[in-house]
Amino acid sequence: MQKILIHIFMSTSTQTAHESMYEAVLARLNVAAQLINLPETVTKVLRYPQKEVKVSLPVMMDDGKVQVFEGYRVVHSTHLGPSKGGIRYAMDVNDDEVRALAAWMTFKCAVADLPYGGAKGGIKCDPRKLSEGELERLSRAYAKAMKDVFGVNKDIPAPDMGTSAREMAWILDEYNKITGEDSPGVITGKPVGLGGSLGREAATGRGVMVNTLQALSKLNINPKQATAAVQGFGNVGSHAARLLAEQGIKIIAISDASGGYYDEKGIDIKDALNYIAKNNRILEGYPNATKITNEELLTLKCDVLVPAALQNVISPSIAENVKCKIIIEGANGPTYPEADPILNEKGIIVVPDILANSGGVTVSYFEWVQNKMGYYWTEEEVNQKHDEKMKVAFEKVWTNAKKYNTYMRIAAYITALEKIQLGIKMKGFF
Ligand code: NAD
Fold first, then answer.
1. Which pLDDT belongs to residue 24?
2. N or C: which end of the chain has fewer CB within 10 A?
3. Catalytic residue among 120, 325, 389, 419
């Protein structure tokens, strides 16, 4: 089995992980599809996104000049319900990346057993270089351009890299002004005062924490004796680090775009959070740890490694040097397809992105449900429902990994495909 998987990865994705993220998704889809003998018709349907929209967004900048930005939205699938997926503001946003992220959302929602298909959007920009006013005008321009794509029962965006509740509020407001109706459920990850759900902001990090505890228990490791390194200290990484520390796990390293910070005795995460709150949300200059590189962080000896920043950080050569027992993929696509077999050979358990970071979309789903009901749950209720769903999803994937003698990433795809193929078949192909 091992050899077959390695062969398939090599032959379907040679070099493509660097060139095409979408090809990397398809390579993994192919492996899972072959293992469960998925009808070719279903695979074929899933290889092509249902809708791709690219828009030009002219924005009046603070200096009085107009700048035109590229905006994207890809709806990969609506076979199990309206499409769901975040909006990313980053300079490397492009059609291939958005397509891949949209497909991942299809599989992620199915693994978490949510009644959604998958989508993703993005704007090619560097949000850190834009003023608040420019960001608001850009977000509103994007909402206007996507007014026919979005819809409370059609396509529901949320935050992703470079966006937060603030951008969701602007997009919601613009959408409501255009449609003349109040539709809080058209977007999730909103501020709590505008129909956002308690627990949403920390949800992806919380999902990382729950998945970590599940994986540790499978290896009979006591969390209170475990160590972890977390790459990325934004929404996902900072909440994950805080919640893991609250479970007694010693966080020996954290990092962000400014580099890594290491302390073998454990970093005080509250102290690091206080530091970034006063330092423009960045760890640059953090004084209470030793500076290391992001690459060094990935190869530290620890029990749990959480890549929670960017895609394509665990290359085959990094994988050769990784010394952890468990990888929990907080980020989307942090591991190259070619690195999967290497990690597997080393006996490292990789809890894949489509499971490990599905806490965010799970609580987005709860937010949407609460918006539809017009009735809101307490944070404890949200967290409890989230943890239950996450544990069930982990167990399903773990069981499929054993059943099909494969690793967790492929087992997660299998778990998703089992559900999606039924949706596709029941609805009919034509
Ligand atoms: P964010 O913008 O809040 O944070 C990103 C973090 O990564 C920041 O700390 C940034 O400094 C750091 N970073 C940037 N470049 C880096 C580099 N070269 N090396 C190390 N760190 C670097 O983004 P986020 O929302 O936390 O998203 C992180 C990842 O998690 C993305 O892959 C995103 O798609 C995924 N994700 C996010 C959510 C969510 O709810 N926010 C849900 C699912 C998946």
1. 87
2. C
3. 120
